[in-house]
Amino acid sequence: QVQVVESGGGLVQPGGSLRLSCAASGSIFSIYTMGWYRQAPGKQRELVAAITSGGDTNYAGSVKGRFTTSRDNAKKTVSLQMNSLQPEDTAVYYCHASVKSTMGVRYVEVWGQGTLVTVSS
Hints:
The chain is mainly beta. It has no helices and 11 strands. The radius of gyration is 14 Å and the shape is elongated. It has strands at residues 3-7, 10-12, 18-25, 28-39, 46-52, 57-59, 67-72, 77-82, 91-101, 108-111, 115-119. Helix content is 0%, strand content 58%.
């Protein structure tokens, strides 16, 4: 069973920083894209950042220049460094991965359970 688990959420003041981490586990052959989504109260889940196995990244316009995502292909982990956090960044952050298992023939989408980030003074 392939799964991803995220961690690192918490409470931070506006202007502060936080780093989220996510680890994939199970019988994994390859991971194409790993990324981060978030869902704020009363809003739809949205893409925050994504990174391919080759290192190509994509960021939401609202976080570009403040957030940075990186990954370690050998360890099957991805991180999200969040700087200059604002109250509008408050949300549950979810790790996501497009994964091919060792017995699979195609990629499947795997989601973590989420970690809460609260930005408040």
